[in-house]
Give the backbone structure.
Amino acid sequence: MKTPRWILFFIKVKADCGHITRLYDKIKSFDSKGKQHRIGMTITTEKPKLCHRCFEKKAVIRCALCGGSIFPGDFITLVSIEKDSVPKYAVPYGERFIVCSRRACCNNGGLFCGRWTSDGEIDSLV
Ligand SMILES: [Zn+2]
Ligand SMILES: [Zn+2]
């Protein structure tokens, strides 16, 4: 049986980042129009690497083109962007920038596809 969310909200664990976190809490997320939302995230291990706050800061990045959130496990593409039009939150990877797999972004001359991981690395699929 799955533990109900309201119980997870009251269970606290210590994450490797050093912070105490609830097993269920909300984190910030941006949609492809750059609008901010709060979404629920359940931690499924007693020994998480990151608390919710560190997760939303370190593991979740934003697409350099649309500004939408990219979560660990999401497909990403690397594109070259004119320096003048690079937003502050864009994440560089080598000479290029990370964009999401939403159609409008990954069709933009992307060169490489992989998956974003929670360690801030890219898992290559090719
Ligand atoms: Zn933390
Ligand atoms: Zn995008």
Q: What stands out?
A: The pocket of zinc ion (ligand 2) is lined by residues 32, 63, 65-66, 68, 99-100, 102, 105 (CB under 6 Å). Residues 1-59 form one domain. The chain has a mean pLDDT of 89.
